Amino acid sequence: MKNKVRLAYLVSHPIQYQAPLLRAIARQPDIDLTVFFGSDFSVRGYQDRGFGVGVRWDVPLLDGYRHEFLPVLRDKARSGVMSPLNYGIVSRLRGAGGEAGFDALWVHGYSTVNAIHGMLAAKALGIPVLLRAESWLGDRERGGRTLAAKRLFFKMLKRLVDGVMPIGTLNAEYWDHYLGEDFPQYPMPYAVDNDYFQRRTDEARERRDELLNELKLDLGRPVILFASKLQRRKRCEDLVEAYKRLSPGPGIEPDPYLVIVGDGEERPTLERQAAGFRGVRFCGFRNQSELPRFFDIATVLVLPSRHEPWGLIVNEAMNAGKAVIVSDDVGCHPDLITEGVEGHVFPAGNVEALANALRTVLATPETAVEMGRRGLERINGWGFGEDIYSLRKALATITRKIHA
């Protein structure tokens, strides 16, 4: 096709959430996508420091799109500023004829040597650059010197990038702050494969009894679900404490179950905290394809994290038609949750506020069902279709080779 856009995408490693989006982009008839990875650690299996267990994803990470692993200088089997560290991106972007082999470079993240190397290479070759990242202004407290250095860094970055693709409202505010409100933005929602999670949740319904029996759960009682890494910033301890406060009196079990899916360094502490409460279930790490089974039995998903850039588990639960409760430190809340509509947003670290949110959602079975229904409606407008529309708009603007 004469007007086909040759798009390179540079990212640290294959990511389970991104793979279906990359397949969808590759199916666009006028976008010729090639993905350049720095490492294959997520494909061959690795020790996840957050989960505290070995992880090998059980969903396809590399199928359906053209990709290449760059030659390695350093690979510590995790993503960081200096790892992976690769060479060869210049020759890949240049192409066989010595001229630019691509019309645009899309980079995921900006705080690694690989990412900066890729942007510098693209600029040297006259290739426009699009940037997507997760940062937001409430992410961390910064000292004066750090902020000053960051402003200088963004002055440099602004010269390397032709447009940014905000994942949501808070990320867009971040770019406004550091790059200026007039800098080109193409909103590209942080989404999951909505069709996949809706289909898998429907399929899980047919086998619901198997999981209920495995976990020894009574069908008539509500289920509060936590599904994430068991590390400090996820604040699962706040949820356990809030759950305990649902007890109607001393020595009386709360009516709901609390099902905790995930593993990590905080698990022993959480198990001690939950000791004596028979309604708590620790299920350990469960792979991507298993999660819809847990969404199916859940009444409400809770994510009480601090410093959570987005929280894609919320997207997944909303695709299952479930109510959600998140802290105001979870980046997705301005875009996916209106207070009291799809669920609740509570101040991070405020256990009593979390307990009150749980009481409200669980007040009647109909309350959670209605919130889940509204959440499903909302998430249906926050998917890969919107991502591809925005990507096309960005490519049409910076390359003028395709229509948005």
Structure overview:
This protein has 404 residues and is α/β, with parallel strands linked by helices. It folds into 2 domains: 5-191 and 383-399, Rossmann fold (3-Layer(aba) Sandwich), CATH 3.40.50.2000; 194-379, Rossmann fold (3-Layer(aba) Sandwich). The chain is 38% helix and 17% strand. It has 16 helices and 16 strands. The strands form 4 sheets. It has a 6-stranded parallel sheet, sandwiched between helices. A 6-stranded parallel sheet has the order 13-12-11-14-15-16, sandwiched between helices. The longest helix is centred in the middle third of the chain and has 17 residues, at 144-160. The two termini are 16 Å apart. The mean pLDDT is 94.
Structural class: alpha/beta
Rg over CA atoms, rounded to whole Å, is 22 Å
What general form does the structure show?
elongated
Q: Give the CATH topology of the largest domain.
A: Rossmann fold
Number of domains: 2
Number of strands: 16
Return the CATH architecture of the largest domain: 3-Layer(aba) Sandwich
What is the CATH homologous superfamily assignment of the largest domain?
A: Glycogen Phosphorylase B
Helix tally equals: 16
State the major sheet: 6 strands, parallel
Q: What CATH first level of the largest domain would be assigned?
A: Alpha Beta
